[in-house]
Amino acid sequence: MKSRGFVLFFVLVGTCIETLAAQRGTGPGVGAPAQAPAGRGQSSPASQRPPQTKTPQSFSREQVDAGRTQFATQCGFCHGRDTAGGAGGPDLTRSVLVAEDVRGDQLGPTIRTGRPARGMPAFPLSDGDLTAIVAFIHDQKSQADLATGGRRSVDATDLETGDAAAGRRYFDAACTRCHSATGDLAGVAARHQGLTLLQRMLYPSTTGRSNSGARVPQTVTVTLPSGQVITGRLAYRDEFTIALTDDAGWSRSWPASQVRFTVDDPLQAHVEQLGKYTDDDMHDVLAYLQTLR
Questions:
Q1: Among 98, 59, 77, which residue's Cα sits nearest to residue 199?
Q2: Angle at the Cα of 119 (from 207 to 200), degrees rounded to 5?
Q3: Is 98 found in the same domain as 73?
Q4: Residues 77 and 166 in one domain
Q5: Are the CB atoms for 89 and 16 separated by under 8 Å?
Q6: Are 200 and 278 in a shared domain?
Q7: How many whole angstroms separate alpha carbon 256 and alpha carbon 243?
Q8: I want to staple 16 with a disulfide (CB 3.0 to 4.6 A). Which of 20, 29, 78, 270 is the partner?
Q9: Are residues 260 and 276 in the same domain?
């Protein structure tokens, strides 16, 4: 039986919540479990208990239920629908940041600001949605504190429930502007299988490469106050500066407030597609891609 959003439980998008050291300048990783001293006979992280919650907290059932929906939509593609991690993604029930958080005082800024340079986007959520997500994360953390055992494994057969014919129809309608079953995706199922293929299908920017293996460049078009238009590969961008490398190999940069510019990211279509897929669509397209050998 396929429930909506089921596939998102398994998707690895990359390291979405970063280290506490990166945010605070000290301490162990945010999305990583507390590390035991290395040595002979050291048990696996999954067999170790998660870091204990420093300040026990309770939330209303309404908040937790609302957070469950919001978390699955906003965060489940990386952290799993139940916060316990995807296929290699951070398990938030083992996060030191979560263990030390008090009603969102640390989680809130991390979620809203994100760590784009390290793979986690910013989520400009309303106060209500953010509080609900924090409530759900803490509820799952509380359950993990009382539970025994470690993370669950993923059976490849969980991903093999789609209709390849339906997937081909979806692919032909939504994907052929950029991809070809006989071109860049020819033999993709032989190169990538199971969860890896699903990851590349849903969010290939986590690898920074196209299905052919070539690095996917971002291009930028800058319009100067004089009206001159300059294009090239995006080299750097923040709120103050936009920089590119032009066709001649020259590096050029401008104050972002003094020019107009647009950035073309070939992988943005995959990000936008995440909001359009139904669970059946994802299974079906994956089933079709698995035939491309």
A1: 77
A2: 30
A3: yes
A4: no
A5: yes
A6: yes
A7: 9
A8: 78
A9: no
Residues 250, 181 share a domain: no
Question: Does residue 1 form part of some domain?
Answer: no
**What are the φ and ψ backbone dihedral angles of 231, each rounded to 5 degrees?**
-120, 155
Which tokens in the block code for residue 153? Answer: 């494994």
Unique residue bearing structure tokens 């970063």: 18
What CATH number does residue 62 fall under?
1.10.760.10
With beta carbons less than 8 A apart as the criterion, state whether 204 and 210 touch: yes
Parent domain of 241: 219-264
pLDDT by residue for the chain (293 residues), tens only, comes to: 344 444 443 333 333 333 333 333 333 334 444 444 444 334 444 445 677 788 888 899 999 998 888 888 778 777 777 887 765 457 888 888 888 889 989 888 988 888 776 667 888 888 989 999 999 998 888 887 776 555 444 556 667 778 999 999 999 999 988 889 999 899 999 988 887 888 778 766 544 444 444 456 788 999 999 999 999 988 888 888 999 998 899 999 999 999 999 888 777 777 778 778 888 898 899 999 999 99
- Please state the domain count of the chain: 3
- 72 and 28, same structural domain? yes
